[in-house]
Structures are given as C-alpha cells and as structure tokens.
Amino acid sequence: MKKLIAFLFIVASLFAADFQLWQKSTLNSILKNNQLRVCLEPGYVPFEMRDKHGRIIGFDVDIAKKMAKDMGVKLKLVPTAWDGIISALMTNKCDIIISGMTITQKRNLKVAFSDPYFLVGQTLLVNKKHSNVKSYKDLDKPGIVITTKLGTTGEIAARKLFKHATIKTFDSESAAVQEVLNNRADAFIYDKPYNELFMAGKGKGRLIFLKQDLTYEPLGFAINHGDPDFLNWLNNFLRQIKHDGTYEKFYNKWFRNTDWLKRVQ
To answer: What single string gives the DSSP state of each residue in 129-197?
Structure first.
C-alpha cells in the first residue's frame, strides 16, 4: 500500500508539473488570447516588406498567416526595428520572431530556435568597375569599401572575411547597396535571396553578382527559452507544411515568381 501511495504521489506530482508548464507556455497564452503576435522587420525582401499601400507582405508573412490559421487564432504583425527585435520578444511585445533570422550560437544564448525553415548564404554584389573580380579575396585590400546592414550576419561575415578592406554599415539593405550603385562603395555583402532579387531589378546590368555562398546560414523561428510545448508545436508545423505542399507553394510564389514585385515597386 505504501508503495502504491508513493507511486500515485509521484504521478500526481508529475502531472502537476506538466500542468504548470503548460499554464506558462506561450502557446497556451496564444490560445487564451486568441492572437498570435509576430515580431518582424518589414525590410527584408521577399521575406517581409511593405507594399504600395503600406501593408506588410512576404514569404514569412504567408507562413505566419498559415501558422495562425492552424492555431485557430488571429494574427497580429508587430513591426520592429532589427536591433531591438530580440529584446521585444524577451519583454513580451510578441510571441515569436518570424523575420528571416539566422540561427547563431550568440543569438541562441538569448532565444530558442525552431528547426531551420530556410537556408541562405552571404553573397556579394560588386561595382562593375571590378569586372575582373572572381572571389571576395580579390576585394580584401586597403582602399576597398564593403557595405552591409548593421547588426546582421552580413556584417558578421564582412568583418570575418575582409581584414584589410573598410567595412561600412547602414540601417537598411537598400541604403547599403545604394552606396555601390552610386560608386561610393565597391561591394555589398548580404543574403543571397535579397541579392538575387535585387539583380533581377535595380542591379541588372549595373552590378556584378558573385553567387558563391560565403557562409552557411539556416533561418529559424525564435521564441523565448524554457517553452518546450511551443517549440514542439512549431517543429511539427514545419514538418507538416514541408510535406503537404504548403511550403513549396509559398516558395514558388515569392522566389520563383516575380509578379509580386508590381505590388512593391
């Protein structure tokens, strides 16, 4: 009898612990509030951006919409400056970051990441005056100016790869690459999807695109630490959309089709 009582006590304790964990889960809070709050910075084409009417659209937005739909809740997009986006999550201004965020060990100390949902690498857009450049190594010398966006993995890669060139950072991708177009810089380093789309538009015939990936960068959804229920749901969500055709549909819409460009230009 004593063993049975002890066993039942252990079971009850475990149940109580699981219930308390669920009560604290962000997923439980989302369901209670009937709202999924997503932090993102609308400036990373084609992941998240504003159309001509100021509405936020993009690959990440479609994923967030699908996520909210599967939860049975409303979606609230929370536009947030990149340099404060992790702080916004940690101070409960949103439930999750879906904003083309690269999974890094440094960021992982502050937030937890889902399994990767996209893979990108840093590439270079080079001023046409450097027509003989074949590799980033050809640009790593004094007098060369490399631009990128402040606080991104593009900046991390630039400072790691370019030891002799001058690195200049800007608050936006567009401002950084414009320096190259205006002949005030020699090259722009940033994520391949952004650079590919830029070359299909403003950069066509004006810049040289070095397509070789300089880094390996998986993108993930970021949430607060200590929330296994939410993390489990997100990883199951990813597996589902990658196998039922949803992910491919979104990918084709934003990366293989350029019809959406008319909405933002």
So the answer is: GGTT--SGGGG-STT-EEEEETTSHHHHHHHHH-SSSEEEEESSHHHHHHHHHTTS-SEEEEEHHHHHH
